[in-house]
């Protein structure tokens, strides 16, 4: 297992006794990031065995309460835990002011460095602050909802391809550390000035596993761009397709529309979430399977493991 | 059962998997009020079988996150439910501005009338808004914590004493509606001008059941005043008495101190809550029982029923 995706809250609009408000963990061996932080996410994370001390980032799609209301409590609990390590918090412009308003009212006390990234426009790469060593690469991109909303791409870095050490040595690379340089940088210059490139000696790079998280949104080019070639696209599916008009009116998607996005993006798997309490999630997934072959209806606490085949 | 008190969250500072963040319901047959609204209170209320449509008021003691963080989500869910009836929300000055900041950021949308009562100074009676018919009488009074904090008294109204109808008729009251007037108002004037008072005809008034809710606070006169003669005093007991100095430093109480408040107030029963995750709640209650005879350590979801003996 290289990446474990754990839906922590899969309900739309409000938490229910069966599905929490929006939250999803993407976990690697060394750390994890939280996508959205609906009410109760801190407890769902603990229930799933995730350690808050290993949380690297909270990526908030938009400021609607069912995606944000768990954040103040999560930050408070991590402060009580004595966290000192920085935490990255990304979200649409305005998230900083909202956290400040909570702090001014005495509602929020954060005792560790908060690296706030406020998104606008086209988003882009989200950079880690100094002192926060995380295994993930992050990117944000705009979605299409009633309010400014950003989806995220969470990926492990690409890894260099396999080095044929025997062939490299035969080609003149001295046994030793230069082999690694050749593998990682693609070329070396020997003492006499001769250049050896990795061509024919190092296999193709191994793309890092990636997850795209796209809610809340209507089907949109931004979701397709974030999901392009992702191993797993997490897309909202608030309604069954019979209510596509209602979904559009409320700036949401149906499961079928989510599958169309996944198919267009060439995503390996599709994880549907953000189900209206009024839908049957399995039925939403079933009708979407006509469009994309590998679809899972998210359930709170049931992980999806990603490995490189 | 005339009043049912249901602890919905009994942990201090943060929710845990065993105890939610601060919240407690006081329920009568026709409606209920919520004292504090920590994260997760809306789900704990549903789990306890309480209907959000019958919620009359949310009484927030102070704005620390573990007493407030569940409020935006609760209001959001009631809006999605289509509530139209007003809701009373009381809390220390600043609670209105905080809710406005959440609304401005798009995080909170409330679709029903919110009757906000911002408390300062000595508190006092909390009046119901027009259109909100509730069985309770409410009073707020100041506590002593690190930030402005108010406790509450939630009571059913006093009921007139028993009318000895036979004796009243013998004394000249015409059989019929005047008997009820005599009972409820204590005197009637007959057609000829003669006044009959209830003395000797109507027994002593039956005091309405009452609950005082006093957290977070050090032991203080305000808590004693709110708890005076209450059927149940709900008082915080963050630490065991061996850590009284720490409790004082953090503006909290020990169970023993809570029992001293209950004894001084002459409260019938004491319900201890707001336990630090580091204490054994039953042990905190045990050592307090040397000071007050009727003490319960609150457990999430376990109700305490009050009846008039």
Short description:
The structure is a homodimer. Chain A is α/β, with parallel strands linked by helices. Chain A is about 25% helix and about 25% strand.
Structure description:
2 copies of one chain form a homodimer. By secondary structure, chain A is α/β, with parallel strands linked by helices. The first copy, chain A, has 2 domains: 2-158 and 208-307, Metallo-beta-lactamase, Chain A (4-Layer Sandwich), CATH 3.60.15.10; 165-197, no CATH class. Helix content of chain A is 25%, strand content 25%. Chain A is built from 10 helices and 16 strands. Chain A has helices at 41-47, 65-68, 71-80, 95-104, 165-170, 177-185, 221-227, 244-249, 255-265, 281-288, and strands spanning 3-9, 23-27, 32-37, 55-59, 87-92, 114-119, 124-126, 137-142, 150-155, 187-189, 195-197, 210-214, 232-236, 269-273, 295-297, 304-306. In chain A, the strands form 3 sheets. Chain A has a 7-stranded mixed β-sheet with strand order 6-5-4-3-2-1-16. Chain A has a 7-stranded mixed β-sheet with strand order 7-8-9-12-13-14-15. In chain A, a hairpin with a 5-residue loop joins strand 10 (187-189) and strand 11. Chain A is globular, with a radius of gyration of 21 Å. The model of chain A has no long low-confidence stretch (mean pLDDT 96). Chains A and B meet through helix 1, helix 2, helix 3 and helix 4 of A and helix 1, helix 2, helix 3 and helix 4 of B.
């Amino acid at each position: 297992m290289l990446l474990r995706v754990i839906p922590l809250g899969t309900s739309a609009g409000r938490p229910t006794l069966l599905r929490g408000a929006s939250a999803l963990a993407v976990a690697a061996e060394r750390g994890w990031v939280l996508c959205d932080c609906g009410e109760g996410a801190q407890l769902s994370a603990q229930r799933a065995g995730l350690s808050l001390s290993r949380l690297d980032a909270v990526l908030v799609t938009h400021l609607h309460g069912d995606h944000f209301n768990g954040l103040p409590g999560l930050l408070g609990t991590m402060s009580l835990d004595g966290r000192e390590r920085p935490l990255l918090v990304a979200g649409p412009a305005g998230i900083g002011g909202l956290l400040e308003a909570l702090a001014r009212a005495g509602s929020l006390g954060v005792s560790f460095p908060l690296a706030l990234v406020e998104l606008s426009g086209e988003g882009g790469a989200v950079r880690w602050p100094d002192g926060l060593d995380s295994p993930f690469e992050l990117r944000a991109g705009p979605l299409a909802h009633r309010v400014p909303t950003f989806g995220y791409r969470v990926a492990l870095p690409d890894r260099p391809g396999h080095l044929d050490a025997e062939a490299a040595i035969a080609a003149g690379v001295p046994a030793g550390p230069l082999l690694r340089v050749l593998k990682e940088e693609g070329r070396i210059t020997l003492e006499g000035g001769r250049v050896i490139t990795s061509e024919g000696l190092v296999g193709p790079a191994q793309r890092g596993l990636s997850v795209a998280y796209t809610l809340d949104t209507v089907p949109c080019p931004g979701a397709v761009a974030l999901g392009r070639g992702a191993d797993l696209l997490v897309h909202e599916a608030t309604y069954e397709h019979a209510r596509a008009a209602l979904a559009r009116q409320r700036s949401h998607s149906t499961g079928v529309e989510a599958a169309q996005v996944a198919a267009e993006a060439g995503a390996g798997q599709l994880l549907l979430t953000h189900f209206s309490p009024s839908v049957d999630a399995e039925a939403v997934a079933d009708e979407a399977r006509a469009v994309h072959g590998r679809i899972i209806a998210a359930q709170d606490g049931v992980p999806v493991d990603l490995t490189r085949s």
